[in-house]
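INTERNAL AUDIT FORM
Audit reference: QA-55
Scope: verify that the stored structure record matches its stored sequence.
Auditor: D.O.
Record contents follow.
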Amino acid sequence: MALFGNIKSLDKQIISLGFLREVFDYLTSQRLPIIPSKVELGKGICAISSVYESKPRSEIPYESHLKNIDLQYVLLGNEIIEVNSKKNLKVLKEYDPEKDVIFYDNSTLGSSLLMSPGLISILFPEDAHIPGIISKEKEMMSKIVIKYPINLI
């Protein structure tokens, strides 16, 4: 089940889980501008910083991951992330273990999360998602995605 909200509010709720403490500390320390990069945080956790333009929904497939939880934190811009149970979707491209990703057809509508600066979505392996969808108009996005190994929880 995906979690979504303002990082400060979610931080208070998640703190009891403990396992995300170091990740939230890292995310809240980041400032603009970000440089596209991949940073290893230890224990197999990595942070991927990216800058990109949001796209029409029709151009992006659903994706899910088997080995990692995705924490998507927006620093700049507005986008929609659509979420659906992967059980509801048709596989387009089988699992790639090197990239830890499965791609799915996007013809089934899911729930939409409007992401803006300071918001975070936490997406578990059962949560197929379409990130980077245009909200009102194309925008440049700055976002950090944390890949958190599921075996650490």
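Auditor finding: record pair retrieved intact. The longest helix spans residues 7-14.
Action required: none
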